[in-house]
Specification:
This protein is of the alpha/beta class and 292 residues long. It is 39% helix and 19% strand. The chain contains 13 helices and eight strands. Helix 7 (171-181) links the parallel strand 4 (156-162) and strand 5 (182-195). It is globular, with a radius of gyration of 18 Å. The structure holds S-adenosylmethionine.
Length: 292
C-alpha cells in the first residue's frame, strides 16, 4: 500500500474525477480495474435501497447532488431539530447536507467539508438549485480535510458523514476532531463501511479497494476504541446488512474483484458491512464536582 500522502492524493484525484464525471461509475483512473466507490449505476435506486425518502429526494435535492457514493443514511439517524448546526464530513456534491437543510430550517445551519476541489465546486454550484427548491440559504461548503476541520471548537450539534471516514489515513485524528467541534451533549450520526474482521493481505494493499471504501475501513473493535479514546460516549454501532446487500447487488467490478480475491467459500459480506455509528460528546459538567 502507498504511503499516507500518496493515498490521500489518490483519493482526491479519484473523487475529483467522479465529481467532474457526475457519476460514481467513472472508475479509479489509476487502477487496473474499472471499479466504483459504490455500485450505483443508478444513484436514485441505491438511495431508495438504503432508506432515502423518494419524495424528499425529488423535492429537495438539486440535480446532480446524488452521485451514488453513499453507503448509508446518516440523516435518518441524526434526529435533527430546527435550529441545530450540522457538520457533514466529506460532503461530496452535497447529498446529505441538502437533505438536512430543511430539517434544521432557517435558524439552523449545515456546513459541508470536503478536501476535493472539484467536489466542492459541484456542491457549491448545487446551492443555487437547493435555494430555488426550498427557499433556504442555510448551507455552506468549506474546503478542508476531516483530520483538520475548518470549524470552531464546541460549535456543532450533530456531526454526520456518509462513507468517508474509511478513506482517511489518520482515523484517530478524525475522531478527535469530531469530539473537538461538537458542543457538549452534541451527537454523532455517521454511516460508514466497517470491517467485521481483517481483510486478507492482498486486499488490504489494493489501492482500488481503498478508494472504493473497502480496504481503508476500520475493524469494528478498533472503531469503537478510537471513538472512546477521542472522548465520545454512548457509542452504538449497528450493522445494516440490507445496505451491504444493496451495495453488492448487481455486477459492480469493484465488488467482483474483491469477491475474487477472498478465500474460497467467503463473500464480501463476511468481511465488510455498512454501519450506523452513533455517539454523544458528554456534557462538560455532568455532575456536581466533575468540572476541573
Ligand atoms: C465516497 S464519497 C462520499 C460523498 C458524500 N458523503 C455522499 O454520500 O455523496 C467520499 C467524499 O469524501 C471526500 N474525502 C475523502 N477523504 C477526505 C478527507 N480526508 N478530508 C476531506 N474530505 C475527504 C472525497 O473528496 C469525497 O467527496
Amino acid at each position: 500500500m502507498n504511503n499516507a500522502t500518496d493515498l490521500r492524493a489518490t483519493v482526491r484525484e479519484e473523487y475529483g474525477a467522479m465529481a467532474r464525471a457526475g457519476s460514481s461509475c467513472c472508475g479509479p483512473s489509476t487502477s487496473s480495474t474499472n471499479g466504483c466507490c459504490a455500485p450505483a449505476a443508478n444513484p436514485d435506486a441505491l438511495a431508495a435501497a438504503i432508506g432515502y425518502d423518494a419524495k424528499e429526494l425529488a423535492t429537495i435535492l438539486p440535480e446532480g447532488a446524488n452521485l451514488g457514493l453513499s453507503c448509508g443514511n446518516p440523516g435518518a439517524i441524526a434526529a435533527l431539530k430546527p435550529g441545530e448546526v450540522v457538520l457533514d464530513l466529506g460532503s461530496g456534491a452535497g447529498f446529505d447536507a441538502f437533505l438536512c437543510g430543511p430539517k434544521v430550517g432557517t435558524k439552523g445551519q449545515v456546513i459541508g467539508v470536503d478536501m476535493t476541489p472539484d467536489m466542492l465546486a459541484r456542491a457549491r454550484n448545487n446551492l443555487i438549485g437547493y435555494t430555488q427548491r426550498t427557499g433556504l440559504a442555510n448551507i455552506e461548503f468549506r474546503m478542508g480535510e476531516i483530520e483538520h476541520l475548518p470549524v470552531a471548537d464546541a460549535s456543532v450539534d450533530v456531526v454526520i458523514s456518509n462513507c468517508v471516514i474509511n478513506l482517511s489515513t489518520d482515523k484517530p485524528q478524525v475522531w478527535r476532531e469530531i469530539a473537538r467541534v461538537l458542543k457538549p451533549g452534541g451527537r454523532v450520526a455517521v454511516s460508514d463501511m466497517v470491517l467485521l474482521k481483517p481483510l486478507p493481505d492482498n486486499l488490504k494493499n489494493a489501492v482500488e479497494a481503498y478508494v472504493g471504501c473497502i480496504s481503508g475501513a476500520s475493524v469494528v473493535d478498533d472503531l469503537r476504541r478510537m471513538m472512546i479514546n477521542a472522548g465520545l460516549a454512548t457509542v452504538r454501532l449497528e450493522s445494516k446488512a440490507a445496505y451491504v446487500a444493496a451495495l453488492t447487488a448487481g455486477d459492480d467490478p469493484l465488488y467482483r474483484n474483491v469477491a475474487a480475491a477472498l478465500p474460497p467459500g467467503t463473500t464480501p459480506a463476511d468481511y465488510i458491512t455498512s454501519m450506523d455509528i452513533r455517539a454523544v460528546k458528554p456534557a462538560a459538567c455532568c455532575a456536581p464536582g466533575c468540572c476541573p
